[in-house]
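Bug #77: duplicate submission created two jobs. Keeping one. Sequence:
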Amino acid sequence: MLSCREVSRLLSEARERRLGMWERFGLALHLMMCSGCANFRRQLDFIGAAMRRFRDRDEGR
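Kept job's structure:
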């Protein structure tokens, strides 16, 4: 079982590279059981979306 520390690292790395099959499996299993890490994932998704909107807005100038 992955620790919360490992999950937070994998969630960050997943933004830069494709995770391996066992990494994805362990991540999914942990996220089903850990509301703190699931919340962290939602926060990363929110920040990523905000940064994309900011980038796209700037490119329109």
